[in-house]
């Protein structure tokens, strides 16, 4: 089925050989996972905060042996908190549990040139972060053969606060990171797969946990670049009492190469107080962010080919949005003779108003298809966990219990608009959604070379939906799922470890979909409510080796199944069915540091992704479009999953010492992907090089030039294929006159729809410390 961009209220619109990797059980039993390297299970003592005497190196990227601090590349030497520090009150950092699990330092992330804050996450092997419209909207994420849209199945937290928004106006799991200040990142911890009991909603494919620095030397930084890019950053910390007070502020503007300038206006602030260490400390963090922008959404290829639109043109120049976010959070961690415990709490107030037009004149041939999505929410939550160190028949054992809770109070609205002016309401809802998660994990080290972890997680969700326009779409819904987990680690054998993991996971669906029984635009049309929680299950085997001095290499083979589900479409206000799917593949990750002044990494991920079963409904749609090939192509039934990349690759080299010249060259590759289920449309591969050259003085001053899209490659940030109508289409006139069948007019002209990569871009940064 083609992507369902907009079908409500205006009228319509309709590696191989790796499969033998693991056979998943269907009876609710879990498999296995792993981790290991020393005879005893900690508690691991990790430094943080002001207690310099307790500092211990955090695992470097891809878990290699940490390099001495003096040999790391301090691209941002202003940060007094070195990359070997854990954030205060973040808790103990245990040994890695899977070959695909990594930790990336803030230094390593900031050594990379990137166009927007969300691209900092591309330090995660196999993850692609892109954008298909304005710079204030959440990014699009791709990982392990998933088009994760704006965050579904990729759980992201910052300082322990969830970023993903459930029951969101634009899309389930919406994860906006435009408020993130990359220079404030201390470390990023990455996990993949449903094998960890303390990972819940949206974490089936992966989870990314971002920790913030606690202190820094004063830094003032100004960046100016192509297409009106301007950024001012100030950051400093001071000793207050027994702790540190960190303050950071950011102002940014950007127009982009678009015929209709983005006119981004961004304000961002961070205040953080921390005291103690990672395992015995407390921190309180406040954040504030506001952004306004215009957006050039994806445009149909036929409009560019005919000369109707420039490659950087916009079909509807009134698209755009505004957003704000205010957050207050606190963390505490303590250790004792029995083990350790940690807790955190947060409250987030956010608002988004988004104007998009993806189908142009398909639903409304006169005023166009622009719509407005409004999301205004208050999110609050608290988590606590307790870790006990003990023994089982004389064998080292560690047990962790945890409780997680969250509540979202949400006001949602979907309206039809013309040039951002109100036309008609589609639906308006008030939603209260709460959840409780409990989990337990038990790890036993059976021998010097064998460790197992058995876990279980239970999640309960409940939601009240009040539909302001249709009481039949109101109601209360709840659901619960239990998810067993298992991990196992064998080794080390000659500096090599073997990992196995398996488990069940879940993600939540939009609560409105679970109570919607009637089409918001046609109450006579009955709809099937969606399940509130959807099951996933997966397994993974991997190996990690450090046999070659300076080289940390790992290989993971994975499989992930997702149940059939009914999805709520935030763009349309109704539900649609999807089929069960299976993805399997491998990830090969390498990090090599042969000298103190050179750092090399190279990653390759390949995935085979397919729907399961036969789509008879799509076959009926295909038959109804007979005689109109411009509408029928791409609508045949098939098992390809749209926008599921079969291959993702990246590589980079970073050169430099603490002072003097430094440089970075990075390459990112996203292979061709199917855009329709029948594979009739495929995206072009995207290969982009980014570079950086700079000079550092020992007094902390730095001059740096970033060059994005170094080879000025003509490529697309993202491509889709679906039906739309332009006033220049022959079909537009046939539909306006009533000549074409209704099914054809509801589908429109099938075509590539794309958002281009920005051309060659320069950004010059001058930074000083004080």
Verbal overview:
The protein is mostly beta strands and 770 residues long. It has seven helices and 37 strands. The relative contact order is 0.16.
**Structural class of the helix and strand makeup?**
mainly beta
Unreliable runs, pLDDT <50, ≥5 residues?
Answer: 1-8, 11-84
Q: Measure the end-to-end span.
A: 57 Å
Number of helices: 7
- Secondary structure: number of strands: 37
**Major β-sheet annotation:** 22 strands, antiparallel, barrel
Helix proportion: under 10%
Dominant shape: globular
Q: What would you report as the Rg, rounded to the nearest angstrom? A: 25 Å
Mean pLDDT: 89
Beta-strand fraction estimate? over 45%
Membrane topology: Multi-pass membrane protein
Organism: Bradyrhizobium ottawaense
Domain TonB-dependent receptor plug: 102-206
Protein name: Outer membrane receptor protein involved in Fe transport
How is the topology of this model organized?
Elements: E1 102-105, H1 106-110, E2 128-130, E3 140-143, E4 146-147, E5 154-158, E6 161-162, E7 185-192, E8 206-212, E9 219-225, E10 229-240, E11 243-254, E12 264-276, E13 281-294, E14 299-300, H2 301-305, E15 320-336, E16 339-356, E17 371-392, E18 395-418, E19 421-447, E20 450-467, E21 475-490, E22 496-508, H3 511-515, E23 518-519, E24 522-526, E25 533-545, E26 551-562, E27 565-569, E28 574-578, E29 581-595, E30 598-611, H4 616-624, H5 629-632, E31 647-656, E32 660-670, E33 686-696, E34 702-708, E35 716-724, H6 730-736, H7 742-747, E36 749-756, E37 761-769
Parallel strand pairs: 5-8
Antiparallel strand pairs: 1-7, 2-3, 3-4, 5-6, 7-8, 9-10, 9-37, 10-11, 11-12, 12-13, 13-15, 14-36, 15-16, 16-17, 17-18, 18-19, 19-20, 20-21, 21-22, 22-25, 23-24, 25-26, 26-29, 27-28, 29-30, 30-31, 31-32, 32-33, 33-34, 34-37, 35-36
Membrane topology: Multi-pass membrane protein
Organism: Bradyrhizobium ottawaense
Family: Belongs to the TonB-dependent receptor family.
């Amino acid at each position: 089925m083609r992507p369902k961009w907009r079908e409500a209220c205006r009228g319509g619109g309709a590696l191989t050989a790796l499969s033998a990797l693991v056979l998943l059980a269907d009876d609710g039993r879990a498999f296995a996972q792993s981790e290991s390297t020393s005879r005893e299970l900690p508690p691991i003592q990790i430094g943080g905060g002001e207690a310099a005497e307790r500092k211990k190196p955090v695992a470097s990227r891809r878990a290699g042996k940490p390099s001495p601090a003096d040999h790391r590349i301090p691209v941002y030497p202003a940060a007094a908190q070195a990359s070997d520090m854990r954030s205060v009150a973040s808790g103990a950092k245990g040994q890695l549990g899977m070959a695909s699990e990594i930790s990336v330092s803030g230094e390593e992330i900031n050594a990379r040139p990137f166009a927007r804050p969300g691209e900092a996450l591309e330090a995660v092997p196999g993850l692609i972060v892109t954008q298909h419209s304005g710079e204030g909207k959440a990014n699009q994420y791709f990982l392990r053969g998933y088009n994760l849209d704006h965050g579904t199945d990729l759980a992201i937290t910052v300082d322990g606060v969830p970023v993903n928004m459930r029951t969101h106006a634009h899309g389930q799991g919406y994860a906006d990171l435009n408020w993130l200040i990359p220079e404030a990142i201390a470390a990023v911890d990455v996990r993949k797969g449903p094998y960890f009991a303390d990972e819940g909603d949206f974490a089936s494919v992966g989870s990314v946990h971002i920790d913030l620095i606690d202190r820094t030397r004063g830094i003032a930084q100004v960046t100016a670049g192509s297409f009106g890019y301007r950024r001012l950053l100030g950051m400093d910390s001071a000793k207050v009492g027994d702790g540190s007070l960190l303050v950071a502020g950011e102002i940014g503007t950007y127009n982009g190469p678009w015929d209709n300038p983005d006119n981004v206006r961004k304000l961002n602030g961070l205040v953080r107080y921390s005291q103690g260490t990672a395992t015995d400390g407390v921190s309180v963090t406040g954040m504030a962010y506001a952004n306004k922008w215009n957006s050039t959404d994806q445009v149909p290829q036929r409009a560019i080919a005919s000369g109707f639109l420039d490659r950087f043109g916009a079909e509807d120049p009134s698209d755009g949005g505004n957003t704000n976010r205010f957050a207050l959070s606190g963390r505490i961690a303590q250790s004792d003779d029995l083990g350790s415990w940690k807790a955190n709490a947060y409250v987030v107030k956010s608002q988004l108003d988004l104007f998009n037009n993806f189908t142009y004149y398909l639903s409304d041939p006169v005023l166009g298809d622009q719509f407005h999505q409004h999301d205004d929410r208050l999110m609050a939550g608290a988590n606590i966990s307790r870790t006990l160190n003990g023994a089982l028949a004389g064998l080292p054992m560690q047990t962790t219990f945890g409780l997680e809770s969250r509540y979202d109070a949400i006001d949602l609205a979907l309206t039809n608009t013309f040039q951002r002016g109100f036309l008609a309401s589609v639906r308006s809802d008030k939603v209260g959604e709460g959840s409780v998660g409990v989990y337990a994990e038990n790890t036993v080290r059976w021998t010097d070379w064998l460790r197992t972890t058995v876990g279980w997680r239970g999640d309960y969700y409940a939601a009240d939906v009040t539909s302001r326009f249709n009481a039949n779409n109101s109601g209360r819904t709840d659901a619960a799922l239990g998810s067993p987990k298992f991990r196992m680690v064998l080794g080390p054998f000659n500096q090599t470890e073997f990992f196995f993991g398996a488990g069940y996971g879940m993600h939540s669906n939009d609560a409105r979909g679970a109570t919607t029984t009637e089409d918001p635009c046609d109450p006579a049309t009955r709809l099937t409510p969606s399940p509130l929680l959807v099951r996933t299950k997966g397994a993974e085997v991997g190996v990690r080796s450090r046999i070659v001095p300076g080289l940390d290499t790992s290989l993971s083979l994975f499989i992930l199944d997702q149940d059939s589900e009914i999805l709520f479409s935030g763009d349309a206000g109704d539900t649609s069915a999807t089929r069960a799917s299976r993805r399997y593949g491998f990830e090969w990750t390498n990090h090599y540091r042969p000298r103190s002044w050179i750092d090399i990494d190279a990653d390759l991920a390949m995935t085979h992704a397919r729907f399961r079963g036969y789509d008879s409904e799509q076959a009926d749609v295909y038959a109804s479009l007979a005689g109109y090939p411009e509408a029928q192509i791409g609508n045949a039934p098939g098992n390809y999953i749209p926008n599921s990349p079969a291959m993702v690759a990246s590589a980079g080299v970073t050169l430099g010492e603490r002072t003097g010249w430094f440089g970075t060259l990075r390459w990112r590759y996203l292979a061709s992907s199917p855009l329709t289920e029948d594979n009739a449309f495929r995206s072009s591969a995207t290969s982009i090089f980014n570079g950086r050259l700079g000079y550092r003085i020992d007094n902390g001053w730095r001059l740096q030039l970033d060059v994005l899209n170094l080879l000025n490659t003509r490529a697309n940030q993202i491509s889709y294929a679906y039906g739309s109508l332009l006033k220049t289409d022959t079909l537009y006139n046939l539909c306006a006159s009533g000549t074409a069948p209704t099914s054809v007019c509801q589908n429109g002209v099938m075509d590539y729809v794309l958002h281009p990569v920005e051309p060659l871009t320069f950004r010059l940064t001058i930074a000083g410390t004080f």
